Amino acid sequence: MEYLTLFISAVIVNNFVLTRFLGLCVFFGVSKNVNASFGMGMAVTAVMTISSILAWLVYNFVLLKFNLTFLTTVVFVLLIASTVQLLEMVIKKHVPTLYNMWGIYLMLIAVNCVVLGVPLLNVESNFTFAKSIVHAMGAGVGFGVAIVLMASLREKLRLADVPKALDGLGVAFILAGMLALSFLGFSGMISL
Amino acid sequence: MKELWSIFSKGILMENPIFVLALSLCPALAVTSSVTNALTMGLTVMFVITVNNMTISLIRNFVNPKVRLPVYIVSIATIVTVAQLVLQAYFPLLYKALGIYLALVVVFAIILARAEVFASKNNVIRSCCDGLGMGVGFAVAMVIIGAVREVFGSGTFLGYHVLPISYDAPLLLILPAGAFIVIGYLIGGARILVNRIEKSKA
Fold first, then answer.
1. Which of the residues A22, A68, B4, B131 could staple to B53 if both were Cys, CB 3.0 to 4.6 A apart?
2. CB B120 within 8 A of CB B137
3. Do A177 and B80 touch (CB under 8 A)?
4. DSSP state of A10
5. What is the ipTM of this complex?
């Protein structure tokens, strides 16, 4: 039960994109069509879960043990960037169909706010091993939901007559604001 | 001298990291609910981007291009850690307010982008100017967003009341949703301004 609330809270109540503003570059960059957004959501979920697992292990068994916590940021960034590269190579070699579909998104998230932010938050809130996995998966699914919603809105927006100065990024931000406003309705549903 | 000035000044409006290049948006929304936080974040990023540009420029001839990205990341992460430790030691309250976003300065696209696009090809002085210009542009943008949100969202500026107490502040501006909407309109405004300047030059 505890895990379920943590998961749901990460997906909607504390949605990482819309209430914590992590991963915005990718959120605005890739949300131009629904298929690409879906792929991005999957890639982010996978990378985030794997890197949270590794980051938890490294933090608890190496950094804490040798009293090196001031190196957390440096170690996590390198850990995640190298994991993503390794993952890309493995997928390219063994599952080429998957690589053709989602491979390009992997490189985009090697150095990314949300992928680094979740392991850092896990460590900061002293989550157990199981909890950090659930939290990371929830965050990934939440990112996926937000980006797919945004992409479907932006596909509709192409037909609209937007003032020239706001066209593109400006109106995308205002749209994201409306989306965040509707997600605000979930706040208070779960308190942790 | 004139050339250095043009390198410095392009970051402030014509290639403003937030409003025009639209890089590093996470902090622009997350820590701009008050001017103080926005300014601290702006200054931190300015420090990191300038020092990093200078470092990369100094080592640009010794780094094998194949491993340049990991080298850039390690350099940025080290400088951010220094900034983090300094803030934690001298400004613990601000450190707490910025929270996780301070550590996330490491992955700001603008810092890596300047290292890759500019510092790896130019000498130290030019790279320093470029970093300072981009940093100032970033800080100015942060303060503008912070000011709009703080003045109209809670009626204060840097903590002092500037609007009458009876002003009924819309909560929306302090909430995440308001941040998106304010930045959306500011991007539109910056675009009009940039277009006007380009037209008057042509």
1. B131
2. no
3. no
4. I
5. 0.81
d(CA B129, CA B71): 22
| DSSP letter (8 states) at residue B199 | H
The DSSP code sequence of A115-175 is HHHHHHHHHHTT--HHHHHHHHHHHHHHHHHHHHHHHHHHHHHTTS---GGGTTHHHHHHH
pTM more than 0.90: no
Pick from A32, A30, A106, A117: which is nearest to A73 by CA? A117
CA B148 to chain centre: 16
Contact criterion met (CB below 8 Å) for B29 and B154: no
Chain A CA closest to residue B86 = A70
Any idea what DSSP says for residue B115? I
For residue A22, the chain B residues in CB contact (below 8 A) are: 26, 30, 104
By the 10 Å C-beta count (0-12 exposed, 13-18 middle, 19+ buried), B42 is classed as buried
Half-sphere exposure of B113 (CA within 13 A, CB side): 12
Q: What is the pLDDT of residues A41-75, one digit of tens each?
A: 888 898 899 999 999 999 999 888 888 888 888 88
- Measure the CA–CA gap between B187 and A164, rounded to whole angstroms: 12
